[in-house]
TrEMBL record, chain A:
Annotated CDD domains: BKR_SDR_c (cd05333)
Catalysed reactions, semicolon-separated: a (3R)-hydroxyacyl-[ACP] + NADP(+) = a 3-oxoacyl-[ACP] + NADPH + H(+)
Functional pathway: Lipid metabolism; fatty acid biosynthesis
Signal peptide as annotated in the record: none
Protein name: 3-oxoacyl-[acyl-carrier-protein] reductase
Keywords per UniProt: Fatty acid biosynthesis, Fatty acid metabolism, Lipid biosynthesis, Lipid metabolism, NADP, Oxidoreductase
Similarity section: Belongs to the short-chain dehydrogenases/reductases (SDR) family.
Function as written in the Swiss-Prot or TrEMBL entry: Catalyzes the NADPH-dependent reduction of beta-ketoacyl-ACP substrates to beta-hydroxyacyl-ACP products, the first reductive step in the elongation cycle of fatty acid biosynthesis.
E.C. no: 1.1.1.100
SMART domains, A to Z: PKS_KR
Quaternary structure annotation from Swiss-Prot or TrEMBL: Homotetramer.
Domain of life: Bacteria
Domain Ketoreductase per the UniProt entry, residue ranges: 7-188
From TrEMBL, chain B:
Keywords: Cytoplasm, Fatty acid biosynthesis, Fatty acid metabolism, Lipid biosynthesis, Lipid metabolism, Phosphopantetheine, Phosphoprotein
Family as reported in the entry's similarity comment: Belongs to the acyl carrier protein (ACP) family.
Pathway: Lipid metabolism; fatty acid biosynthesis
Gene Ontology terms describing biological process: lipid A biosynthetic process
Official protein name in the record: Acyl carrier protein
Protein's organism: Glycocaulis alkaliphilus
UniProt PTM: 4'-phosphopantetheine is transferred from CoA to a specific serine of apo-ACP by acpS. 4'-phosphopantetheine is transferred from CoA to a specific serine of apo-ACP by AcpS. This modification is essential for activity because fatty acids are bound in thioester linkage to the sulfhydryl of the prosthetic group.
InterPro entries: ACP (IPR003231), ACP-like_sf (IPR036736), PP-bd_ACP (IPR009081)
KW Lipid metabolism (keyword) present: yes
Main location: cytoplasm
Length: 245, 78
């Protein structure tokens, strides 16, 4: 089950811990993977590690035109595009009273607008093939909220609503649109938290530990698979029980 | 038969997977050729690409038959 043999996938944010794990998992299931991110040398390193069936397609997600062109670059490199995983994300945490316009705009642009642009540029090919998988990596805070993250929570909640609308538009074409919502996952983003913040978080996670990139990657493999073809417009929460929604 | 008609016909046959003889000027995309609203949008986008023109949304709404499409495109490309 869950073979991705012959499928072609684009993963954004593949320079990060989470994106790297997602790319590895898709690749291990047999998919060809186009790795995107801003740092080409980090992407190349991952591509070298994975070996065959990879392509490196660097992109700055705050550059609208570059984002519009990314799916085509991936498709040209792999010979098609069946699976899109929008994983790239940024945070600019700040209490709202102190939040600058730029903090808001950057987060919305990279986390939400880039997903819209990537979907719009990927969906036609998938619709023509009558097969496609679009997966947005959202966040538990998009559903629960989190103080200091109004911009981030808005972008991630936006991704969920966006996915539900798009799922309804293209379900008849065999293209599913879903989200995976990580809880607290060990990553450079959670490493930035101090010990006090970390232990406060752990008391709220019934599983008693942070999640790993592998936990999220497994959810992506499932949603990308043939077997998940009847699942669309959903958000799969992977959070050790910290929020049961 | 005009060149525009032939090119439109080719796109319609390809996209909607219909028999060639069904694609007449009078054929309605939705009523006769089995298109849904999403097909209509895809067809309009395919016409835009094929003829390198822009079809505004309000014009696209009035393109309901193959003939409508041919007429609109012919006027645009002169």
């Amino acid at each position: 089950m869950f073979s991705l043999e012959g499928k072609k996938a684009l993963v954004t944010g593949a320079t990060g811990g989470l994106g790297g794990e997602i790319a590895r998992a898709l690749h291990a299931q047999g998919a060809s993977v186009a790795l995107s991110g801003t740092r080409a040398e980090v992407l190349q390193k991952l591509a070298d590690e994975l070996g065959e069936r990879t392509a490196v397609v660097p992109c700055n997600l705050s550059d609208a035109e570059a984002v519009d062109n990314l799916p085509k670059a991936a498709s040209d490199a792999l010979g098609g595009l069946d699976i899109l995983i929008s994983n790239a994300g940024v945070t600019r945490d700040q209490l709202l009273m102190r939040m600058k316009d730029e903090d808001w705009e950057t987060v919305i642009k990279v986390n939400l607008e880039a997903h819209f642009r990537l979907c719009r540029a990927s969906m036609r090919g998938m619709m023509k093939n009558r097969w496609g998988r679009i997966i947005g990596i959202t966040s538990v805070v998009g559903v629960t909220g989190n103080p200091g993250q109004a911009n981030y929570a808005a972008s991630k909640a936006g991704m969920i609503g966006f996915s539900k609308a798009l799922a309804q538009e293209i379900a008849s074409r065999g293209v599913t649109v879903n989200c995976v919502a990580p809880g607290f996952i060990a990553s450079p983003m959670t490493d930035a938290l101090n010990e006090e913040q970390k232990s406060a978080i752990l008391t709220k996670i019934p599983a008693g530990d942070l999640g790993t990139g592998k936990d999220i990657a497994a959810a992506c493999v499932y949603l990308a698979s043939e077997e998940a073809g009847y699942v669309t417009g959903q958000t799969l929460h992977v959070n050790g029980g910290m929020a049961m929604i | 038969m005009s060149d525009v008609f032939d090119r439109v016909k080719k796109i319609v046959i390809e996209h909607l997977d219909v028999e060639e003889d069904k694609v007449t000027e009078k054929a309605s995309f939705i009523d006769d050729l089995g298109a849904d609203s999403l097909d209509n949008v895809e067809l309009v986008m395919a016409f835009e690409e094929e003829f390198d023109i822009e079809i505004p949304d309000d014009a696209a709404e009035h393109i309901q038959t193959v003939g409508d499409a041919v007429k609109f495109i012919s006027e645009k490309v002169g």
